[in-house]
Design a protein that fits this description.
alpha+beta, Jelly Rolls, 15 strands, binds N-oxalylglycine, globular, metal-binding, oxidoreductase, dioxygenase, 333 residues, binds nickel (II) ion, Fe2OG dioxygenase domain-containing protein, 23% strand, eight-stranded mixed beta sheet, Plant_2OG-oxidoreductases
Length: 333
């Protein structure tokens, strides 16, 4: 039997939503969001020639928030616009065309069109469908999961991947310098040029009860860093000091999340951000995170230069694949 897509459920849910989408009172966004305060995550100008200033800003944001936005990042607006255009067009195709890219139920791989990734507390479901596929390096790309329709889907995604390297290199260089390491050491600890870029499209249909449901429940990303572009519908929330805040979008900015692997390599100096996504009553939200990840067989642990007797390692070293397996299969607490 086929999996029921949230996009289909949304078509017949005009006033209420099925019970499995209703969150407990501990999670319902209407009850747990700090009202009237929009979280002002730091905004960093990557084109600033004063590199020390950029490093300080990134260190501060990564240590205190685990999230920041970057502007003047070098990815052309047109490239981002075209990425979004084709992603939206894919989700607007009739169901059978999307199902051609569906993840097979028993598949080990994360890639493909799908509806639910993680087993959740109390069996709750998230109001979202998604498409996952790798966009870099070329040797890791599995075109089976790249839509052929719309016809420019592939070209536009390749172009986005190509323009990402500049931002990724700059971010890792600053994160590395900020720890007192050489500029290339953080990137090397993540696999250097073998790092994998995994694109996800989150498609959150309109939801009649955005006060009760969540698009994505609270989590930290397993990646090294995540670079996200949203459509114009707000909904991302970050947790700071145990409270949930809306994150304000800045036009043309990229939203950077510190993921678990950067937290680990930095031995806890940088924090992976706890975040979640709300849904909207009138509009479809869409977001395009790219998870920048170590190769699956690379062992990741606190950087040897950052640990000594006074600063013992705070994390175990593990192959990235092992880390993901443990996190995805652990019984949720
Ligand atoms: C994710 C995520 C947030 C958003 O997919 O990991 O956190 O705004 N998405 O869609
Ligand atoms: Ni996330």
């Amino acid at each position: 039997m086929g999996v029921e897509r949230v996009q289909e459920i949304a078509n017949f849910s005009k006033e209420t939503i099925p019970e499995e989408f209703i969150r407990t009172t501990y999670e319902q966004p209407a009850l747990t969001t700090v009202q009237g305060t929009v979280l002002e995550v730091p905004v960093i100008d990557l084109s600033d020639p004063d590199e020390e200033k950029v490093v300080r800003a990134i260190v501060d944001a990564s240590s205190n928030w685990g999230m920041f936005q970057v502007v003047n990042h070098g990815i052309p607006r047109e490239t981002v616009r075209k990425l979004k255009e084709v992603g939206k067009a894919f989700f607007e195709l009739p169901p059978h065309e999307k199902e051609a890219y569906a993840k097979s139920p028993g598949s080990q791989s994360i890639e493909g069109y799908g509806t639910k990734l993680q087993r959740e507390v109390e069996g709750k479901k998230a109001w979202v469908d998604h498409l996952f596929h790798k966009i870099w390096p070329p040797s890791e790309i599995n075109y089976q999961f790249w839509p052929k329709n719309p016809p420019s889907y592939r070209k536009n995604n390749k172009e986005y991947a190509k323009h990402m390297h500049g931002v990724v290199n700059k971010l890792f260089r600053c994160l590395s310098l900020g720890l007192g390491l050489e500029g290339n050491e953080m990137k090397e600890a993540m696999g250097g040029d073998n790092m994998v870029y995994l694109l996800k499209i989150n498609y959150y249909p309109q939801c009649p009860r955005p006060d009760l449901a969540l698009g994505v429940p609270a989590h930290t990303d397993m990646s090294a860093i995540t670079i996200l572009v949203p459509n114009d519908v707000q909904g991302l929330q970050a947790c700071k000091d145990d409270h949930w805040y809306d994150v304000e979008y800045i036009p043309n900015a990229l939203i950077v999340h510190i993921g678990d692997q950067v937290e680990i390599v930095s031995n806890g100096k940088y924090k992976s951000v706890l975040h979640r996504a709300k849904v909207n009553k009138e509009k479809t939200r869409i977001s395009w995170p790219v998870f920048v990840e170590p190769p699956s067989d690379l062992e990741v642990g606190p950087h040897p230069k950052l640990v000594n007797e006074a600063n013992p390692p705070k994390f175990e070293s593990k192959k990235y694949s092992q880390y993901c397996f443990c996190k995805l299969n652990k019984t949720p607490k």
